[in-house]
Structures are given as C-alpha cells and as structure tokens.
Amino acid sequence: LRDYAVAPLSEEFAFRACVATSLAWSGSCTVASVVFLSPMCFGAAHLHHFRELRRRGLGLVGALAAIGAQFAYTTAFGWFATFTFLRTGHLCGPVFAHSFCNVMGLPDLRGALRHRRRSVICGAYVVGIAAFIAGLWPATDPRLH
C-alpha cells in the first residue's frame, strides 16, 4: 500500500504540485530548469535509504553505490514526472507512472545481457525506449488533458 498508493500520491503532490509549481511560479526559473533541477529534491528525498542499506549489512561502498544508482534513477524519473505534470497540468499521469515504476522496479539489465536471447531482449529495450520518446510529446499534448 505504501509503495503503490501512498508514496506515489504524497510524493507527487509534494514534489510536482508543490515544489515544481512553486519554482515555476517564482519567475526566477525557466520551465527547463524546473524540469531538470526540481527532481534533484525528489532524488535527495530518497537518500535516507542509505541508513537502511547499512543496517542490512551492506558495506559502505556498496551502500553508496546503491544510493547513487537510486538517486540517478529517481532524478531521471523526476524529470519525466515534472515534464508530464507541467505539460498536462494534471497530477494523475505522474502518480500513475510513479506507482507503475514502483511495481516494476528497475530493469534487469544484467539479466538481459546474460540471457541466451540477449539480442532480442536488448532490441526490445531499444524499441521500447524509442517508442517512449516518440510518444512522449503526443501523449502529453495539453489539448488532450
């Protein structure tokens, strides 16, 4: 419940509806800087997981690597969520995308590269990324929302 409903709703409200909107309305930030800078707050809000990783017995270097990867992933997701929110004017898209990402987790790139049909799997990754990029502007067209 926390990962699939409460966190997506509360975090998207806090970081998109409050932080991104405040920066956008402040007049001191361009839309591009709001999209690229405000998600760093979202990424930083997940740094507390470092303590959990250390408590679970992960060494310092391992915990730092895991936190670094999580910061990069949450910041990249924040770029998408902030862009989607500002472009559509609605919080529904980022909330559902956040919930979906929490359900799916990170892609298993190591497993894909070790798979016996890695060329098919990697090709599917490339096609999926290309389709995502190609559909991003049409799907977030403000006239549709």
Automatic annotation (TrEMBL):
It catalyses: Hydrolyzes the peptide bond -P2-(S-farnesyl or geranylgeranyl)C-P1'-P2'-P3'-COOH where P1' and P2' are amino acids with aliphatic sidechains and P3' is any C-terminal residue. The keyword Endoplasmic reticulum applies. The lineage of its organism: Eukaryota, Viridiplantae, Chlorophyta, Mamiellophyceae, Mamiellales. Residues 4-104 form the CAAX prenyl protease 2/Lysostaphin resistance protein A-like domain. The chain crosses the membrane at residues 13-37, 58-82, 88-107, 119-139. Pfam families: Rce1-like (PF02517). It is found in: Endoplasmic reticulum membrane. It is a multi-pass membrane protein. InterPro entries: Rce1 (IPR039731), Rce1/LyrA-like_dom (IPR003675). This is intramembrane prenyl-peptidase Rce1. It comes from Micromonas commoda (strain RCC299 / NOUM17 / CCMP2709).
